[in-house]
Amino acid sequence: MKETLKPGIRYEHRFMVHPSKTVPALYPESEEFVAMPEVFATGFLVGFLEWACIKAINPHLDWPQEQTVGTHINISHEAATPPGLKVAAIVELIEVEGKKLTFSVEAHDSVELIAKGIHERFIINREKFDAKLGTKRGNA
């Protein structure tokens, strides 16, 4: 990681919600999900917030050798967003503890706040991470 990886890094990421990012598309194998309203799925919202955090800090890592993985998320999904609306994620790195990174996250659609909370990521060495996965696959 670079010396520039410090609390205070902020990033805003924008995305148009497509029908493929709605609740029925989250698990199309599930009749329960398919029967639900066509709104931005919480599962995809989490991924969108993670994406914004990754974009915020990648310039401060030795990418792609160093990457981050999500380890914890605590958000409230405050409001539904239909497809066709743009959403914006605003993230800020608020704490760096060794390789553990903590972010304040929030998301808005073009009408209102849709999510807010905290997200934690951990810096990994991609080669070592892949080696551990290989060992795990071999033991499964």
Summarize the structure.
The protein is α+β, with helices and mostly antiparallel strands and 140 residues long. The chain has a single domain (10-139), classed as Thiol Ester Dehydrase, Chain A, CATH 3.10.129.
Describe the structure.
This is Fluoroacetyl-CoA thioesterase. Keywords: Hydrolase. The protein has 140 residues and is α+β, with helices and mostly antiparallel strands. The protein has a single domain (10-139), classed as Hotdog Thioesterase (Thiol Ester Dehydrase, Chain A), CATH 3.10.129.10. It is built from 4 helices and 5 strands; from the N terminus they run βαααββββα. The protein has helices at residues 23-26, 31-34, 42-57, 126-139, and strands at 10-16, 66-77, 86-97, 100-109, 113-125. A hairpin with a 2-residue loop joins strand 3 (86-97) and strand 4. The longest helix is centred in the middle third of the chain and has 16 residues, at 42-57. It is globular and about 45 Å long. The relative contact order is 0.22. The model has no long low-confidence stretch (mean pLDDT 97).
